[in-house]
Write a structure and sequence with these properties.
Shape: globular
Number of strands: 14
Mean pLDDT: 90
CATH topology of the largest domain: Rossmann fold
Number of domains: 2
Bound molecules: zinc ion
Order of helices and strands: HHEHEHHEHEHEEHHHEEHEEHEEEEH
Helix content: 25-40%
Structural class: alpha/beta
Number of helices: 13
């Protein structure tokens, strides 16, 4: 009888030895959205050993258009994405140890959330988190695969410390000015799926065949025009603050200010790390408006704003991009 992984084992460059390495590997996916869910399913089906899913968000109806692991029940329950993805992956391949982490990756928790990880996949939607991943990966000599998409366009680049340019060699500073986001420019499911599949392929190759033979090309894809380009590997910057001078500024800040979320008219508050009893908060707020709560999150709509509060004290306030207003709503309804 053909084994579960026979088709990829028969692919000679991977083979039995490559499969053993994949089985022994531990991968973290940061951001379990359009990119992360496709990466996660690809690696789970390939027989990865351990898959850690890090995501701070919950499933919404507007995710279902492109986020492959989620269904309508997940959106109706507003399940955390990491939890919903882990439930689905347990049915896809029960041999994989899936570790859902409902958390926002920050300088304060990066060492804990990315402990003992062999490779990191980028499923995020913002430069801030990518700089943090890059600092952590370069410091710890861990390969990671950058990927991004908006509209019909996307790109991916593998970063192998000591061998390729790092993210800060390529992008010393975040892009200036207003950038298109998934909210303003939209995004097509096929482009995120394509970029995520290319990222997963790089991950399998690095895990199975080793990082020393790896060539990092920058791949760009436009699924609407049909243009696909392979650019030469970006050069390492001999004066790079990160990989040359090893100045890991993005890991140093222990706290971050609240940030506006990509793709939504919302602000996340995550500067207050303190446990919150969602049951008693629900009782308190139910005098003002209908409250929906489960063990993972509480949601209430107050006037023009929708508050979602998590047990770790984090909150997402929808209906505004004004950080000051979001802070004051948090203070008013959740407590300072
Ligand atoms: Zn660098």
């Amino acid at each position: 009888m053909d084994s579960r992984y026979s088709r990829q084992v028969r692919f000679a460059p991977l083979g039995e030895e490559g499969q053993r390495r994949i089985r022994a590997a531990r991968v973290a996916i940061v951001g379990c959205g359009a990119l992360g869910t496709v990466q996660a399913e690809a690696l789970a089906r390939a027989g990865l050993g351990t898959l850690r899913l890090i995501d701070r968000d919950f499933v919404e109806w507007s995710n279902l258009q492109r986020q492959f692991l989620f269904d309508e029940a997940d959106a109706a329950e507003a399940l955390p994405k990491a939890v919903a993805a882990a439930r689905r992956l347990a049915k896809v391949n029960s041999e994989v140890a899936v570790e859902p982490m409902v958390a926002d990756l920050t300088p304060a928790n990066a060492a804990e959330l990315l402990e003992d990880i062999d490779l990191i996949l980028d499923g995020t939607d913002n430069f801030e988190t990518r700089y943090l991943i890059n600092d952590f990966a370069v410091r710890g000599n861990i390969p990671w695969i950058y990927g991004a998409a908006v509209g019909s366009y996307g790109l991916k680049l593998a970063i192998v410390p000591g061998r390729t340019a790092c993210f800060r060699c390529v992008y010393p500073d975040p892009p200036r000015g207003v950038q298109p986001t998934c909210e303003t420019a939209g995004v097509l499911g096929p482009v995120t799926a394509t970029i995520a599949a290319l990222q997963a392929a790089d991950a399998l190759r690095i895990l199975a065949a080793g990082r020393d033979s790896f060539t990092a090309r920058l791949t760009t894809v436009d699924v609407w025009s049909g243009e696909i380009r392979q650019l030469d590997p970006p050069a390492r910057d001999p004066d790079c603050g990160c990989c040359a001078h090893r100045d890991f500024v993005h890991l140093d800040g222990a706290r971050r200010a609240p940030i506006s979320l990509c793709g939504r008219n919302a602000v996340q508050i995550h500067e207050r790390a303190r446990p919150i009893d969602l049951g008693s908060l629900a009782r308190q707020l139910s005098a003002l408006a209908p409250v929906r709560a489960n063990e993972f999150a509480l949601r209430v709509t107050l006037d023009l704003y929708e508050l979602t509060v998590f047990p770790d004290g984090r909150a997402i306030i929808k209906g505004t991009t004004d950080v000051g207003l979001a802070r004051s709503l948090y203070a008013r309804y959740v407590g300072a």
